[in-house]
Amino acid sequence: MTGSLEPRPLHGQRLLVCVGGGIAAYKSLELVRRLRDAGAEVQVAMTDGAQQFVTTLSFQALSGHPVRTSLWDSAAEAAMGHIELARWADRIVVAPATADLLARLAHGFANDLVTTLCLATTAPITVAPAMNHRMWQHPATAANLAVLRERGVQIIGPEDGPLAEGESGPGRLSEPGDIVATLAGGHAATAAARDLAGMRVVVSAGPTYEDLDPVRYLGNRSSGKMGFAVAASAARRGAEVVLVAGPVHLPTPAGVSRVDVRSAAQMREAVLAALPADIYIGAAAVADYAPRVAVPNKIKKTGEKLELDLVRTPDILAEVAAQTQALKLVVGFAAETENVEHYARGKLKAKRLDMIIANRVGIAEGGFESDQNALTAYWKDGEREFASAPKTRLADALMDLIVERLNA
Ligand code: CTP
User: Fold this and answer.
1) What span, in angstroms and rounded, lies between the C-alpha atoms of 131 and 121?
2) How many Å from the N-terminal Cα to the C-terminal Cα in the chain?
3) How many Å apart are CA 133 and CA 124, to the nearest integer?
């Protein structure tokens, strides 16, 4: 059988492999060879540390391209500037990703070529960590990884096993074959996943704060994580995404333009200003009531009782759904503690939505502040359940359904 009949699952993919400075760098030579066997076009960038372990010449021979090592190499920049290289890549694969490199990526450093490329790209990023097991298990590394995961970075490995220093534990770079298989598996999704290119998606996320006086507000426990994950997922599929965010401390997902607001009234204004759009996803937990007036001075305690004078806020979702401009899909969220389907379907109808995504709140696992969530989507003549999963994964599954309903 000839080689041409072998499957080339990464055919046409442009992969930028960024090599970090660890002993596992030698395995990345094999990774580059296998990625090319799988049909990918590969370019390589190396950190200074990586060059202590493997030469640029080896990677050049295996990738078939000159290897990039510095931001300050004028000849290389003239051939292909680093921003151009960041744009060239369909995906960046950081392997091995050392503890130091993960920290710099998590904090948005751009102090060498590799971190600059990762910051300048809008392509998805995969990291394959490799390090000593104590460094892997250190809370600082765990926290950096959590930040990267939240941002939608794909993490492969590491494996458990013997490490370079004669010790054993988690920290071995995943086998090149396994990294290629994971990338090839994900490739089907990425290829199908440019299906929102040319579309404009507006997402609201997080809570709103309604000021009572200069020091107090009415708020809720929404973390914004679900809405941010949905916005990130839509951007990965090629959409132009505007994310209207209530007060949350979350990093802005790659490729998303963000508008920060505080109150329901500000959120309404920002959402309406972001229209027209093809899709609106109302994931924010908008306050239903706000103080009639926010008083300029601190409310002093007087009697035994304090009564607040609250008025209904505008229903942003219903207002967007009632717009005459050609929105293709309007999706709402419903947080319910009981009779989930009944209440969710009631809102679907009353607000004239195309779909509502309900989650049960108030149970031990999942809901507002959690990273996990279980959801059910309802539309006029159908429903779909999503089992408990990390919000980033759920967001991708929800976007699959949204695209399905868009084409229904
Ligand atoms: N929503 C909105 N504007 C509001 C209130 C809610 O856009 N002023 C949107 C939310 O973004 C979410 C959906 O409406 O998509 C939630 O519906 P809602 O009826 O507000 O749910 P609850 O506040 O949970 O309502 P209830 O207390 O009646 O269950």
Assistant:
1) 25
2) 43
3) 27
What pairing do the DSSP bridges indicate for beta strands 168-172 and 310-312?
unpaired
Q: Are 280 and 331 in contact (CB under 8 A)?
A: yes
Q: What is the pTM of this model?
A: 0.63
pLDDT for position 157: 84
Dihedral angle, C-alpha 171, 253, 181, 398, nearest 10 °: 120
Give pLDDT tens digits for 30-79: 999 999 999 999 999 999 999 999 999 999 999 999 999 999 988 888 88
Can you read off the two tokens belonging to residue 122?
A: 């809008």
If one residue of 203, 316, 317 were mutated to test the ligand 1 pocket, choosing by the most ligand atoms within 8 A of its CB, it would be 317
In DSSP notation, 170-185 reads EEEPPPHHHHHHHHHH
With a Cβ cut-off of 6 Å, ligand 1 is lined by 204, 264, 282, 284, 286, 288, 313, 315-317, 332-335, 347
Using the 8-state DSSP alphabet, how is residue 252 labeled?
P
Cα of 345 to ligand 1 centre, how many Å?
A: 13
Residue with tokens 């450093």: 109
169 CA → ligand 1 middle, Å:
48
